[in-house]
């Protein structure tokens, strides 16, 4: 009877000793997400605590932008630098310190790494529990970063707009311009457009799209206003007008905007940010295509505009 008991005791002792070799003194959890966005945009949504609520998959306290919960675990955002943020992970009585860092890899791509470590207990039973606990935490970290990746790789979440790259199909334009001391009134814009309508009709040409507009503030007291209409054939331009031709089949960055001049101006800023983030170069000026008749619709909040920026 003694030999079997000693044998079992020996196996248990061997198992306990093995735990110290299998489970390291410092147990770690590590999750990495490769996202196809620039490190600048990762910074905006990871390092700034207030941005977490935009993508967090669980719950958060509305009045506190540093405390978030998911799957029974509380995550408290703590000290941050330009390159990382510390996150306290608390589940029940277990508290784990972690941090998230990011690193640009390729053009327009970034690796986001979430790392945590814990010194395991000398008690073999607690050591096993520590190991299981931190590996469960790692699964949650993988899930959370997965949600972050889905969120940040959608243009509308990062820039507030959804962008497309289209081909220029109607390259021939008839254009005209003027200058104003203030942002141009719609009567001024539509007066220029009406002039183009008349020239096109008088020479038997056809319009191939909605009016195009570019407003450029040259200084504090002057705006340069350009309008254009795409046409199906060349005509003889009248006084103050000319023909322009874009590159047929060239690429143009496109987005739809709803709102007035300030909204459109902000959209162009985001269009430029997108262009910069994706390494695109513009060979020509941006422009807006007037979808809503702005003379008929006085409520600027209802204006629909399609903005463009030629790129390559």
Secondary structure layout plus pairing:
Blueprint: H1 2-22, E1 26-35, H2 39-46, E2 59-60, E3 67-70, E4 73-80, E5 84-91, E6 94-104, E7 110-119, H3 124-152, H4 155-159, E8 164-167, E9 172-180, H5 186-202, E10 212-219, E11 222-230, E12 241-245, E13 251-258, H6 261-277, E14 287-290, E15 304-311
Low-confidence parts = none
> Percent of residues in helical segments?
25-40%
Total domain modules: 2
CATH level 4 superfamily of the largest domain? Regulatory factor, effector binding domain
Strand arrangement across the biggest beta sheet: 8-13-15-14-10-11-9-12
Shape: elongated
Q: Helix- and strand-based class?
A: alpha+beta
Describe this structure in words.
With 312 residues, the protein is an alpha+beta fold. It folds into 2 domains: 24-153, 2-Layer Sandwich (Alpha-D-Glucose-1,6-Bisphosphate, Chain A, domain 4); 164-311, Multidrug-efflux Transporter 1 Regulator Bmrr, Chain A (Alpha-Beta Barrel). Helices cover 31% and strands 35% of the residues. The protein has 6 helices and 15 strands. The protein has helices spanning 2-22, 39-46, 124-152, 155-159, 186-202, 261-277, and strands at 26-35, 59-60, 67-70, 73-80, 84-91, 94-104, 110-119, 164-167, 172-180, 212-219, 222-230, 241-245, 251-258, 287-290, 304-311. The protein has an 8-stranded antiparallel sheet with strand order 8-13-15-14-10-11-9-12, covered by helices on one side. Strands 1-7-6-5-4-3-2 form a 7-stranded antiparallel sheet. Strand 6 and strand 7 form a beta hairpin. The chain starts with a helix and ends with a strand. The mean pLDDT is 91.
